[in-house]
Amino acid sequence: xxxxxxxxxxxxxxxxxxxxxxxxxxxxxxxxxxxxxxxxxxxxxxxxxxxxxxxxxxxxxxxxxxxxxxxxxxxxxxxxxxxxxxxxxxxxxxxxxxxxxxxxxxxxxxxxxxxxxxxxxxxxxxxxxxxxxxxxxxxxxxxxxxxxxxxxxxxxxxxxxxxxxxxxxxxxxxxxxxxxxxxxxxxxxxxxxxxxxxx
Amino acid sequence: xxxxxxxxxxxxxxxxxxxxxxxxxxxxxxxxxxxxxxxxxxxxxxxxxxxxxxxxxxxxxxxxxxxxxxxxxxxxxxxxxxxxxxxxxxxxxxxxxxxxxxxxxxxxxxxxxxxxxxxxxxxxxxxxxxxxxxxxxxxxxxxxxxxxxxxxxxxxxxxxxxxxxxxxxxxxxxxxxxxxxxxxxxxxxxx
Lengths: 199, 191
What we know:
The complex is a heterodimer of chains A (199) and B (191). Chain A has 199 residues and is α+β, with helices and mostly antiparallel strands. Chain A contains eight helices and six strands.
């Protein structure tokens, strides 16, 4: 029997869109770092039980994969590893640090303005659905909002995004006071995912 | 429909080409025996190769996102390097000291090279460290030895000078005495 309910699996599998393989490989590295080979095998075994198997080592960086499988293994990982929200934030930060996509985008990590301006471009390199935009960037007040439209995802994924955004912004802003917090969420009744960034 | 299929094939081919390029870049970057980091204009480390991980003792995920000052013993050397790279685009073998994860100081020769966007403006720079700690130790050892030998030589010279002074003084005294004897021999005896 699968570790998560049939209803939840069905709900997650209803998510549309695709994700680039590089993103899944980042998650694989994080699981390896945290749980080793045994953790990856455990996750693959549990994924098989859900009826949606995944073989992490076969994933190619520049191939597109179903986004719902990505969300499903995150939900499964949360259950089997008993990971907290903070661990998923750490997952996001880790991903951004080793990310191949971030390396492609390095040319934009030269100023705050440029970095925030390219948020949408950044998103498109990862996902075929959703639109990420920067709103109200105020360099004097040290704040900005990142708004993600037309994207559902999974509540766990919101924490991964908090971590990922934190890491990327830390390349162009002092990280001592840097905070990224989701203030509006589709899973809490909002129309978009909205992240407040302060530094 | 045919166009869609053709597009799909092209996308597939491009994806495979990107995979190859990724693998090639990764292999080359990891092969480089010189510890190398890539830094953005905010002095934040954005990438590091395997040699840098081994030399500095931090893993890639520990290095990325950290300020490069963290690695330097003299923190403002980073500004110096950055200004030079901005001006000349390149630095070759500038001596410096870096800190490893184990807090060991290493003497290095630093080389840097600017990375530019469309040859218009700098978007970051590469920093490479060549470990010369052993060479420096050897050099310092040799310098110490030379210094000690010079000291010894000076001491010997001083001794010789002393001996020379003593010997010459003795010789002069002998001559004086000989002269005195000759002088006394030439004098008539008193009855």
